[in-house]
Amino acid sequence: MRVKMKIGFDAKRAFHNSTGLGNYSRFVIDGLMKYFPQNEYFAYSPTLSTKEIGMKGKTPKKKFMWRSWLIKNDLQCDGIQIYHGLSNELPFGKMPLGIKTVVTIHDLIFERYPKLYPFFDRLIYKIKFRKACKNANAVVAVSEQTKQDIIDFYGINPEKIYVIYQDCDGAFQEKLSVEHIENVKEKYQIKKKYILSVGTIIERKNQLTLVKAFQKLDLSNYELVLVGGKSSYQNQIELYVQKHNLLNIKILNNVPFQALPAIYQGSALFVYPSVFEGFGIPIVEALHSGVPVVAATGSCLEEAGGGGALYANPLDINDLADKILQILVNKNLRNQLIKAGEKHVKQFSAEQIAGQLNELYQNITLMA
């Protein structure tokens, strides 16, 4: 029997983050509200914003330490049965009687690649993530890779870890007109057929290797377009481009979300050479956009791309260049990948993910 539940969410990211954890939080909340409206949902955030997520919201009068400690008083007053930390953390200490907890862990990249993170950031993440995994009644991992990392780094019992995937924003599933796509391309001065890569321009994302692979192919009739937030790593790429006089490489920072679906749909190929990821949402965005993919081996990207992608060693320029060329010159392979990708992403639908989460919530309410 399906019972009505009162479910609370850590909604800080849902209100305040326009990408990443914010997208995941809104995806989960929207899916559950749409497909399981019989439940009562509450959003908890240190501060609310103008972003509307269509549910009851609560902010504290005293914000200091509220999210880590004092929120438990509000959960108890509201009669919450399930509290879901959507972004890697839960309140510290024992929860009030009758409140079960779920935490979603997106990745443990800071554990695998500690040198990429400042010391105090790593320390705080380690404390919060480990405690959340240990104290939660159930842990949601966004990929099998993340599940294995939770087991390996924190020694968490595999039986309480559930792999539940996520989808991307619905905007990537809407077919855009040729005119609209051309207008966006014109705005960003994309004048040729192009290979696309989307992701923050940081060392782990490995865009410099992609630039070198593109250089090796010497594709004068294509552009390579890198879209993402800027970091000091971008300076290395720009210096390399200047040194080798590479004319067909474009780096776009601060691209608004509204332009991304058109940029994806206008591309000939999407390449995601990241050395390590927790899941790889840009790959899902590309597959929904009807674009074939080349992705990196070594983490979880095969889970995101399935049969819709070819996979290359992210540290091997020749392998990456070879996989890119295979798709560009072989129309049958390209169409094969697009069809396989369309089939693969169906498992990430909001209805399916919401169903898996609702079942998990139902099950943990029955725990002693």
Please give a structural write-up.
With 368 residues, the protein is of the alpha/beta class. The chain has two domains: 6-167 and 349-365, 3-Layer(aba) Sandwich (Rossmann fold), CATH 3.40.50.2000; 170-346, Rossmann fold, CATH 3.40.50.2000. Helix content is 43%, strand content 16%. The protein is built from 15 helices and 13 strands. It has helices spanning 12-16, 20-35, 66-77, 109-112, 119-135, 144-154, 178-187, 207-217, 233-243, 260-265, 281-288, 301-305, 317-329, 331-344, 350-365, and strands at 6-10, 40-44, 56-58, 82-85, 100-105, 138-141, 161-163, 193-198, 222-227, 249-252, 269-272, 293-296, 309-312. The strands form two sheets. Strands 3-2-1-4-5-6-7 form a seven-stranded parallel beta sheet. It has a six-stranded parallel beta sheet with strand order 10-9-8-11-12-13, sandwiched between helices. Strand 9, helix 9 and strand 10 form a beta-alpha-beta unit. Helix 2 (20-35) packs across helix 15 and helix 8 (207-217) packs across helix 13 (317-329).
Summarize the structure.
This protein is an alpha/beta fold. It has helices at 12-16, 20-35, 66-77, 109-112, 119-135, 144-154, 178-187, 207-217, 233-243, 260-265, 281-288, 301-305, 317-329, 331-344, 350-365; strands at residues 6-10, 40-44, 56-58, 82-85, 100-105, 138-141, 161-163, 193-198, 222-227, 249-252, 269-272, 293-296, 309-312.
